[in-house]
Amino acid sequence: MHYHVLTLFPEMIEQGLHTSIIGRAIEAGIITLSAVNIRDYAGNRYGKVDDYPYGGGAGMVMQAEPVYQACRAVEDTIGRKPRVIYLTPQGQTFSQTMVEDFAKEEDLVFLCGHYEGIDERVLEEVVTDYVSIGDYVLTGGELPAMVMIDAISRFVPGVLSNEESAQFESFQDNLLEYPQYSRPSVWRGKEVPPILLSGHHANVEIWRRQQSILRTWQRRPELLADAKLTKKEQQYLEKIRQEEQEKEEGRKTVCGRTADADRKEDEPHES
Ligand code: 6GU
């Protein structure tokens, strides 16, 4: 996988991705990362790449030609037209499905905007995908590009070690990861769940799956709609649901009175 990041802040990209697993993959040549400075394509002596917006308004707009030339330079280098991703809060929200789709490409170009955006005409000309990383506004596309590169690289063969991949596969099927514990076995009076110290591997696996289901139900219940559970696991989920419902009913009934009746008495009344 070859990443090409078009940006006004190439050092941000270079520094951000040369550590940890992605840094290791770059060192090993499994992925390559080239940060292209759009300013190098300014076409003037000052490296000026922005101007006032037509029609007025606050801020500056990145001009079309430098972006276009930077993009053309990448096309010339690789000898074909790659997918060009424009990072913008107006894009489709980045998801694991998109990760797996982008990971199939040989080259990916990320176009990072700054100021008040980029001249619309060059976007129409070069962009194939508009992507956002969530509903909040950032100052530029560099961090979103790094987020995407990190997530996509995990799907590039050879980036993760066997152990790292195996761990990943265990929480594929729309369930959250189970909780992890390490030494000491008692920390500030809190014990590690005894089953994990039992040495009974099969039971540990069952417990972990149950913890994954419990956690998903507590924190991201909407994911369960697409989770693949065995019959036994469905029964476990049903049990959790029932227990919660019983707790709920217990809360409503306080000393034989319903919470509803209590609330009525608490309400201010005219007197
Ligand atoms: Cl991709 N860019 C910017 N500037 N802000 C964002 C974003 C992208 N995704 C969420 N917020």
What is this structure, in a nutshell?
The protein is an alpha/beta fold and about 270 residues long.
Distance between the termini: 76 Å
* Overall spatial form: elongated
Number of helical regions: 10
Q: Give the biggest beta sheet.
A: 5 strands, parallel
Any idea of the CATH topology of the largest domain? Alpha/beta knot
Q: Low-confidence spans: pLDDT under 50, at least 5 residues?
A: none
- What class, by secondary structure content? alpha/beta
Bound molecules: 6-chloroguanine
- How many domains? The number is 2
Please tell me the overall pLDDT: 93
How large a portion of the residues is in β-strands, by DSSP E? 15-25%
Helical percentage = 40-55%
Listing every helix as H and every strand as E from the N terminus to the C terminus, the arrangement reads: EHHEEEHEHEHEHHEEHHEEH
CATH architecture of the largest domain: 3-Layer(aba) Sandwich
CATH class of the largest domain: Alpha Beta
